[in-house]
Amino acid sequence: MKESQAISPDLPFYMRALLLAEICSRLNIIKYCNYFLKLELKQTTGTVYKGSCPWCSEKESLLCNRINGTCTCESCGIKADFFDIITKHWDFDLSFTLKLLAWQLEKERVF
Questions:
Q1: pTM above the 0.85 mark?
Q2: Measured in whole angstroms, how far is the alpha carbon of residue 49 from the centre of its chain?
Q3: In what order do the strands lie in the sheet with 62-65?
Q4: What is the DSSP track for 59-75?
Q5: 76 three-class SS
Q6: Angle between helix 94-107 and 82-90 (nearest 10)
Q7: Which strand (E) or helix (H) includes residue 20?
C-alpha cells in the first residue's frame, strides 16, 4: 500500500469535525453515497462499509465509517471524509457541498 495521504481541508479541523459529526447524526451518509454518488457501499462489519474508491477507482478498497463519516482507501492510501467524497465526485468546493447537504437535510429528510 502506498504512503497514506490526506485530503487538505478547507476549514479548520475542529469546525470540519463538528459539521461532519452533525451531518452524520442526521443523514445516513451510506445511503446518500449509494443513491447520489453510485458508490455501492456494502456493509462489512458494524458501522464499516466497503466499496469502490472515487480517487483510484479500485473496487472494494474504500472503507467508510457510517458514524464518523471518514473513509480510507486500502489501495491508494487516501484518507478522506464524507465532504471530500462529494467534492471529488461533483467537482464542487466545500462551501457549495455544505449548502447542498443543508438543503438535502431540510428539503427531503429521506436519508
A1: no
A2: 11
A3: 5-6, 78-81, 70-73, 62-65, 48-51, 42-45
A4: TT-EEEETTT-EEEETT
A5: coil
A6: 110
A7: helix 13-26
